[in-house]
Amino acid sequence: MFVSASLIMMTVDHRQNYLESVRTALSAAIYPLYYVVNLPMSAGGWLQDNFTTRKSLMAENTRLHAQDLLLKAQVQKMAALEMENVRLRELLGASPKVSEHVMAAELLAVDIDPYARKVVLDKGSRDGVYEGQPLIDARGVMGQVINVGPLSSTAMLITDTTHALPVMVTRTGLRAIAAGTGAAGLLDLQNLPSNTDIRQGDLLVTSGLDGRFPPNYPVATVTLVKQQQGQYFIQARATPTARLEHNREVLLVWPQAGGQVLGGATVQEPAGAAQGMQQKQPQAIPPAAQITPAKPETPAGATIKPAPAAASPASALAAPPAKPAVPASPQPPSDVIE
Hints:
By secondary structure, the chain is α+β, with helices and mostly antiparallel strands. Helix content is 29%, strand content 24%. It has a domain at 100-266: Beta Barrel (Thrombin, subunit H), CATH 2.40.10. It has helices at 2-16, 20-29, 31-50, 54-92, 271-277, 313-318; strands at residues 101-110, 118-121, 134-136, 141-148, 153-157, 164-169, 175-180, 187-193, 203-206, 218-226, 233-240, 249-254, 256-257, 260-261. A hairpin with a 2-residue loop joins strand 13 and strand 14.
């Protein structure tokens, strides 16, 4: 009886998705269990942090100070480049590319199935997480969210067998599809012709053509290019740049388009970006410079007086001149170089 009921419920849920609310309620109910299971590792980390020797703390402090100085120097350079980019886009009248909004999340559980590369995060719908949201770390793309609950969500890594991601080779601009193989740290580049220009060491980044992942995020590095005799396609493998099997903290990304955060709230753009997005509109022809209609026939004895030169557009239309007024060629300002 229970087996039959299970089969019926799985069939109905697979085809009609009737049990989505039940699944959401169950995910909220078992949410405390994730913390209970994660408690020993959290306690071990707490003990390790509290009993660390003074010497290791001083060494780590020195290393972090040096890293902080380096990052501050890089941030200064990035700020200068960003301002230069805004100025150039203003000159071209193009819209600036607004950076994405991110939020940190922590892993609660990992799927034990060796071919199903899925993880559970401690952020859910109450935090603005949505299905299909990109997931990254400090080195590159990790995957995307596939199921969202009120307090937690499930994400699929890019090495999962059912995951595929449009990528681009930075050296040549070649577009390809990076599919998961189920193996840790291994992606397969599918359907590459035998004459494809791709080499070991090429960096693969997101192309942004799928409309889900923002462009130019690192995905993987090509590690194998093999040409087989008599085959129309080459065998190419790549290693993800992200630390898929080692991270405990990840970043959820909200891509932005025109200042609107996709799948979430609206963010306020900086003043420089808003000015850069204003397109130069063609100047409309003033009513006084438009060609007036031809002289209508007037009754005998009537006299038509031409409108004054400084007349308003309304008065000019009320009393048309005897001859069509052709607008004079506008004179350029004295400070414009022809």
